[in-house]
């Protein structure tokens, strides 16, 4: 497969997952602002969201004032925000268009329809739209594309690259969403264990569409330790760090097997190593180490694996 | 001026259109609008769009599709086919000749100036004979019809004629929407084209290639207006679609960058123009090409389709000599006629054209896409005078032709069926054999009375049928 094709498939996967994350981020923020008794109003919450997605400075420069409308515009529609839903869907569709030959018509169809619908929504007056429907719109389209990929794509190297993109991006995204919690709570550590704390954990679960799954898996009350366990170490949870990374490893192993010994496997080796370290953790160790420190380490490692994927496969051996 | 109507002779429906006529007559009132909307939705979903250079606007514009097919009888098509293949053979013979001993120039049948001072003549490939002596592997010959048995060649496209994806998709969409029509008519298929194209490319692999040849399509990239076509063909042929940056030269071969390291490429079907192929040989600022490609080509390490320099055969000035080529190389009389052409660099022709501008069509020698041309009878006095000034400034840049009575084909317009002017571009493949699928791209001028069929000028497309015996 052409290196450029592989790169486009990889980034198509990443951008679709990133669009999904942006929409979920919006949902988390929206729900947190519905909380009655935050000390300094909802502005802090939104700011922490932007911090977590790494776009706080860009937002401050362009909009200054934090308001629901500005945030929505920025996270959903703004093409200048590289992580907005609009930017990500456009980039995913452009990547897909470039590698049309590597996609089935069903996948292209789903991707193209998502893009056309998004452009239509982008032209609608904003007061006709609400945050909830924007999130639903995004997750339903990204799921359709994902479903088409699963149902129709050949299980070849292109398939591995797409899913590798999905896996790495999802690992990164769940880590960042968890980190929102850190930013939200840090100034008010006295809330830990309070009703507010529980509500915020719930919000994160909901944003990851994992609210019910959590109850099936653990039952009983929502506690910080269990939610973190569910989203970091639980191998049944579809968006947990361990599941996402496991998928990345599985796809990297698939590539290594397919390509044989002449092609370097640094990305696979590194991913296996990180997965090993993750498996050696339990949730108490993570809290002792500090959740934020642990997540920072993990996000850094995902970045390294991504760089190695490029070096191993996407430069074309020259 | 009267025009040949391909469907009606007076009020009588011509034989090949009999069933279609019934189909139209029994069509329920709102059926057409419904189907038209369905067709558009299909095109948009598939992603068939084209962009018009320099117009801005929606980058994903649809080319208008007309549901009323254009029909040829078997006998009509056989005649055309012979003429097209003959012309394709002559054009390749000419290219072989002018990059070799140039007998046709020595014999005084074509002026040396027109060949050697032609911008498309590549000195860099003189003496290089590509595999099987084929320079132009896909020849698009633009034809117009003026009477039952009267076809004229408007121009030859020997470089990288586009539009074949429309031929294939128009058929696909017609079959999907109106399967009944295809059951009732015996229509020759065209969907073997991608396979024939791949076989053609493989048949001209360089002698240094010992395994099954690896073919690729080289595109300028996804911003190009024809990108859809490039990826569409690559997909149907099962070959990689590459950009210049995906290829590199190492030693005597060309390689593509793959996830498993470098892979050798034997045949490049390029959809970029000569000047962009190799920055070391042609334009040094080209980002689209592959540095060193021409050295590999000249030493027989890779085949390039069409071969660099093939453009010298489809120049509008050379065009006037194609019938002469047929006689000179093949010893046959040309089966397809040229349109009478005046060359404005000749004094007599210049005088005649300037006196008769309102009746003539004037084109730039190197122009294409319907840009920079004057259709005398359809232009205002002012437009004619503006154009006259352009000609006076640079007569060598223009040719003129009589305004042809282009045939019409019934076409769906707001009020129902109405005659609109059409042309035809069949795609002739030249490799170890010469092949032509029964069909081509019919372009239709959708504006009433318009003779310009280019998509950039408000033209649309139709499915083109050849009925079997």
TrEMBL record, chain A:
Any Pfam family hit: Alpha-E
DUF403 domain segment(s): 1-314
Protein name: Alpha-E domain-containing protein
Organism (species): Paracoccus benzoatiresistens
UniProtKB/TrEMBL annotation, chain B:
SUPFAM superfamilies xref list: Glutathione synthetase ATP-binding domain-like
Pfam family, one: CP_ATPgrasp_2
Matching Gene3D superfamilies: 3.30.1490.270, 3.40.50.11290
InterPro entries xref list: ATP-dep_Glu-Cys_Ligase-2, CP_ATPgrasp_2, UCP005522
Residue ranges constituting the Circularly permuted ATP-grasp type domain according to the UniProt record: 69-445
Identification of the protein by name: Circularly permuted type 2 ATP-grasp protein
Species per Swiss-Prot/TrEMBL record: Paracoccus benzoatiresistens
């Amino acid at each position: 497969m052409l290196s450029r094709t592989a790169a486009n498939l990889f980034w198509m996967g990443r951008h679709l997952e990133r669009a999904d994350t942006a929409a979920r981020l919006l949902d988390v923020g929206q729900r947190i602002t519905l909380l009655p008794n935050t000390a300094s109003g909802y502005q802090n919450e939104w700011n922490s969201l932007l911090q977590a997605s790494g776009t706080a400075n860009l937002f401050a420069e362009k909009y200054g004032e934090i308001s629901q409308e500005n945030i929505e515009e920025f996270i959903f529609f703004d093409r200048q925000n590289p992580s907005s839903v609009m930017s990500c869907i456009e980039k995913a569709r452009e990547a897909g268009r470039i590698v049309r030959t590597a996609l089935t018509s069903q996948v292209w169809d789903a991707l193209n329809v998502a893009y056309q619908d998004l452009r239509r929504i982008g032209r609608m007056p904003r007061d006709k739209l609400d945050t909830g429907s924007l999130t639903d719109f995004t997750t339903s389209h990204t799921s359709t594309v994902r479903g088409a990929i699963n149902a129709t794509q050949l299980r070849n190297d292109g398939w591995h690259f797409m899913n590798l993109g999905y896996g790495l991006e999802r690992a990164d995204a769940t880590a960042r969403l968890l980190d929102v919690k850190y930013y939200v709570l840090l100034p008010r550590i006295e809330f830990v264990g309070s009703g507010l704390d529980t509500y915020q954990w719930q919000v994160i679960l909901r944003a990851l569409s994992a609210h019910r799954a959590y109850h099936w898996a653990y039952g009983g009350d929502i506690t910080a330790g269990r939610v973190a366990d569910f989203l970091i170490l639980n191998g049944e949870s579809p968006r947990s760090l361990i599941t996402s990374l496991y998928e990345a490893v599985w796809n990297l192993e698939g590539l290594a097997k397919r390509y044989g010994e002449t092609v370097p496997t640094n990305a696979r080796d590194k991913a296996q190593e990180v997965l090993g370290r993750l498996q050696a953790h339990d949730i108490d160790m993570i809290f002792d180490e500090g959740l934020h420190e642990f997540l920072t380490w993990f996000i850094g490692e995902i970045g390294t694996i991504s760089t190695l994927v490029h070096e191993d496969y996407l430069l074309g051996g020259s | 001026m009267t025009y040949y109507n391909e469907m009606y002779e007076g009020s009588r429906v011509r034989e090949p259109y009999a069933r279609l006529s019934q189909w139209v007559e029994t069509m329920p009132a709102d059926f057409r609008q419904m189907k038209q909307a369905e067709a558009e939705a299909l095109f948009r979903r598939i992603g068939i769009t084209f962009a018009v250079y320099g117009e801005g606007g929606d980058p994903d514009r649809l080319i208008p599709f007309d549901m009323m097919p254009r029909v040829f009888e078997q006998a009509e098509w056989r005649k055309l086919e012979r003429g097209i293949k003959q012309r394709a053979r002559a054009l390749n013979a000419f290219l072989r000749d002018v990059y070799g001993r140039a007998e046709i120039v020595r014999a005084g049948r074509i002026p040396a100036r027109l060949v050697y001072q032609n911008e498309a003549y590549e000195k860099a490939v003189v003496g290089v004979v590509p595999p099987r002596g084929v320079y132009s592997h896909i020849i698009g010959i633009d034809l117009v019809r003026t009477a039952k048995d009267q076809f004229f060649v408007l121009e030859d496209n020997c470089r990288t004629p586009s539009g074949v994806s429309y031929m294939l998709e128009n058929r696909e969409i017609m079959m999907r929407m109106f399967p009944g029509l295809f059951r009732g008519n015996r229509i020759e298929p065209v969907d073997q084209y991608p396979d024939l194209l791949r076989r053609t490319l493989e048949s001209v692999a360089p002698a240094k290639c010992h395994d099954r040849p690896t073919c690729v399509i080289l595109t300028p990239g996804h911003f190009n207006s024809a990108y859809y076509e490039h990826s569409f063909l690559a997909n149907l042929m099962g070959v990689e679609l590459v950009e210049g940056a995906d290829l590199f030269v190492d030693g005597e071969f060309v390689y593509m960058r793959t996830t498993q390291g470098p892979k050798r490429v034997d045949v490049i079907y390029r959809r970029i123009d000569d000047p962009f192929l190799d920055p070391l040989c042609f334009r040094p600022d080209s980002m689209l090409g592959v540095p060193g490609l021409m050295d590999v080509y000249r030493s027989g390490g890779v085949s390039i389709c069409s071969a660099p320099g093939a453009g010298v055969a489809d120049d509008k000035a050379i065009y006037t000599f194609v019938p002469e080529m047929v006689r000179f190389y093949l010893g046959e009389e040309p089966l397809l006629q040229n349109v009478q052409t005046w060359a404005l660099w000749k004094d007599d022709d210049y005088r005649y054209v300037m006196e008769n501008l309102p009746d003539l069509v004037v084109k730039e020698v190197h122009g294409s896409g319907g840009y920079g041309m004057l259709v005398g009878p359809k232009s205002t006095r002012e437009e004619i005078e503006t154009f006259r000034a352009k000609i006076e400034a640079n007569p060598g840049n223009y040719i003129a032709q009589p305004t042809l009575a282009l045939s019409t084909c019934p076409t769906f317009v707001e009020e129902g069926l109405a005659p609109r002017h059409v042309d035809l571009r069949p795609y002739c493949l030249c490799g170890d054999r010469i092949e032509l699928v029964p069909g081509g791209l019919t372009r239709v001028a959708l504006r009433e009375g318009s003779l310009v069929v280019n998509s950039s000028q408000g033209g649309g497309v139709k499915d083109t049928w050849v009925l079997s015996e």
